[in-house]
## 1
Amino acid sequence: MTRLAKFFPAASPVRIPVRLRRMEGRQPALENAVIEFGTAREIFFASTLPLEFGERLQVTTADASLDVEVQVVAVQYRDGQLAVAARFIGEVSNWILKA
C-alpha cells in the first residue's frame, strides 16, 4: 500500500474501517476494508476484490459518517494483494483531509 501511496505526494496515513460495494458492471460485491492513506481527493486501501481501473465503488463507514462514491484510479498487484487508489466522485464535505 505504501508503494502506491508514494505516487500521490499529499497522501497521509489514516486508519478508517469501511465497507466497499461495487456499483456497476459485474456482479455486485461487498468487502470490509481499511482506508490506509488519504488525500483531499483520494483514498488508498487493500482489496481482495478483482477491481480494475475505472470501476466505481460505494465506500461507507459503520456509522455512515462517510458514505461516498469513488472511482478506481490506480491498482497495484504485489505478493497476491491488490492495492487500490480511488478518487472521490464529487465533493465530500465531511472528509477529514482537506486541500
## 2
Amino acid sequence: MSKSPANKPLTYKDAGVDIDAGNRLVESIGARVKRTHRPEVMGGLGGFGGLFALDLARFDEPVLVSGTDGVGTKLMLARTTGQHAGIGIDLVAMCVNDIIVSGAEPLFFLDYFATGALDEALAAHVIHGIADGCEQAGCALIGGETAEMPGMYSPGDYDLAGFAVGAVNKRDLLDGSRVAAGDVILGLASSGPHSNGYSLIRAILDTLPGALETTLDGVSIADWLMQPTRIYVKPLLELMRKLPVHALAHITGGGLTENLPRVLPDGCGAALSRNSWSLPAGFGWLQHAGNISDDELMRTFNCGIGMAIIIAESDAAAARDALETVGEQVYELGHVVSGGGIDWR
C-alpha cells in the first residue's frame, strides 16, 4: 500500500470525517429516540435497517402510505437566527401531515442529516426535535443517517430529509371519492408559514436589514418565522374515529389555491370566503414588506390555514366541536360546489 506524498499516513478524520463523533452522536440520542418507539418496533439504533412489525389485527386490509420531504430554505434562516430547536419538528410535520391526508396513521420515520463537518451538539439538538415531532405524531423514529461530506457544504451548513410510512385499511382510505357538492370545508389554524415560502421570505428580509427584530403582537418576526410546523395527526385521527371525514388537504406551498383542488374529484370545486378567517399579522407584514398581491400571497403561503377538512354539512358542527375541544382553532372556510377550481367570494 502506497503512502501519501508527504510520507504522512492519512486518516478519515484528516479528510474531514470524524467517525468517533458520529458514534458519540448516536449514543447521545439513543434514550431520546427510544421514547418514540411503539410496541411494533423491533431492535434499536445501529442496525442496517429499521424493523417494524405491522399489526395485522388492526390493519386487516392494509394500504401503506409513504411520504418524504425536507425543510427547504428555512434551514438558512435557522442558521441566521440560531434557532434550530423546531427544525426537526418541521421535518416530521411535512411528512406526517401529508400521510394523514390519505387517512393513514403514521407508523415510523427515518431521517437523513447531512453536513460538511459534524457539530455534535447542533446535530443532537436537531435530532431531539425530530424525536419531539415523532412523539407529537405518534410515530416511531426507527433509524436515520448522519452523513459528513467535507467540501459539499459550507462550514455550519446542514441539510435534512425525512421519510415516513403509515397505514390505513383500504375501506378507510381517503381518496376524494366521498366528496360531494354541499360538503363543508373547515380549516385548521397554522402556526406560521410552516416550512413553505421561505425563499420569498428571505428575499423580503434581504431588502430590510434588521427586520427580524421587528415585533408584531409581542413576538419578533424571527420567532414567528421559526415557529415549528403544526402537526395535525392526533386530532385528525381522533376526528376520523368519530365522524366520516370525506377528504383532507395539507396546505403547503401553493396555499389553499393549489392544494385544495388536489383532493376534489372531477366535477367539484370550492367556494371559499376570504373573510372566514383573519389573516395573521405576520402574513400581513410579509405582504406589505414585499408588496405582494393578494393572489400571490394566497398561492405561496398557507396564510394561517395549515389543514383543510371536507365533511358533510350535517357533521360539520360536531367536527368543529371535537377539534376545538382538543385545542385546534377551526374556521368554516366555505363549501364544495359543482364545477371546478377555487372561487373566492
## 3
Amino acid sequence: PFYARIGVREVWLVDPATRVVEIFALQAGGYAAVTDHRSVVLGVRLETVDAPKLRIHDGDAFTDV
C-alpha cells in the first residue's frame, strides 16, 4: 500500500537464488501481476534463462545478468 500511495508504477520481485521475476503494475490504487514479464515503465522484457540467469530484452538486444 505504501508504494501505491506514493505512485510507484511498477514493482519487481526477483528471487536472488533463481532469478525468477514477478512484475506488478499499479492499477486503480493497487498492484496487478504482469503476466508477460514486460516492464511498461522501462520498455524491457525479463525472463529467467539457464537459471540463475536473468535475461533483459530491449528490442532485439538482450543482456544476461
## 4
Amino acid sequence: MLAAYQHLHESGLAHSIEVYEGAELVGGLYGVALGRCFFGESMFSRTTNASKAAFIMLARHLAHWGYHFLDAQVTNPHLLSLGATEIPRQTFLKQLRENVDKRLEHRWEIREDLVYP
C-alpha cells in the first residue's frame, strides 16, 4: 500500500493534508483526486480536533478549486458533525460519471493563511 500511494502521489493523484502543532504532526488526512472528485481514504488525530481542522481546510480548498464532491466513503457521526451527507448509490455513480474525467488546473497547496472570498 505504501508503494502504491507513493506512486499515486508522484503521479499527482494522492495528496495529504497535515496539521502541525509547532514542528509536531498532530493530525491530518489523505486521499486521491480524480477529475473534480476527491476520495478521502483515512484521517488521524493525535490531538483534539486536528483531523477536523484538516477536513475543513480541505473542503474549503476543494470548493474554491471547483471540485464537485469530497467522498468520505463511510458515514459516521464524526463526518456528519462536519457537514457530510449520505447520498443514494445511483446519485453517487451519476455524479462520479459526470465529474471524474473533468481535469482541474490548480496548485495543490493548502495553507491556513489562504483566504477565499
